[in-house]
Design a protein that fits this description.
Order of helices and strands: HHEEHEEHH
Shape: globular
Structural class: mainly alpha
Length: about 150
């Protein structure tokens, strides 16, 4: 299961930020239209690499706790829960900014969100938190179980 996509990153952080952080592109390379995302293949490849790297950090934690693929009520989920998408996006964003961020997480939102994502992964590992269901079958506040 893919936890995040290029479109998820663009929706969360905007095409402008992604264009600014990627050395090889300009703002015109990442354009958001009303109902569509357009970006050049080079931009997509670099962003997808960061997403794959971020998912490689998140997925082992998830798979050590939950079933693969993630299921609810015996049925495989069509898309990743919001928490996993958020974690992968925050980590991928950090990777995209890796040579541009200030190391002070208190003042740099990219760093502070990365630190929070890593803390959340630690809480998942330790069992201090779980992945909440995102209104599946019209049931709120359900958690995924193995």
């Amino acid at each position: 299961m893919v936890y995040a996509t290029v479109s998820d990153l663009i929706t969360r952080y905007g095409g402008r930020e992604l264009a600014e952080v990627l050395d090889s592109v300009t703002e015109q390379d990442v354009v958001i239209t009303e109902d569509n995302y357009d970006y050049y293949a080079g931009v997509e490849a670099e962003i997808n690499a960061a997403i794959r790297d971020a998912q490689a950090v998140v997925e082992p934690v998830v798979l050590s706790i939950y079933t693969d693929p993630l299921q609810y009520d015996g049925e495989e989920l069509d898309e990743a829960p919001n928490l996993l998408t958020s974690l992968v996006c925050d980590i991928a964003r950090y990777y995209l900014h890796d040579d541009k961020v200030v190391t002070d997480g208190q003042t740099d939102p990219v760093v502070s969100r990365y630190i929070e994502a890593m803390k959340t992964l630690d809480k998942l590992k330790s069992g201090d938190t779980n992945i909440p269901a995102d209104k599946i079958n019209d049931v709120d506040d359900v958690v995924y179980h193995i």
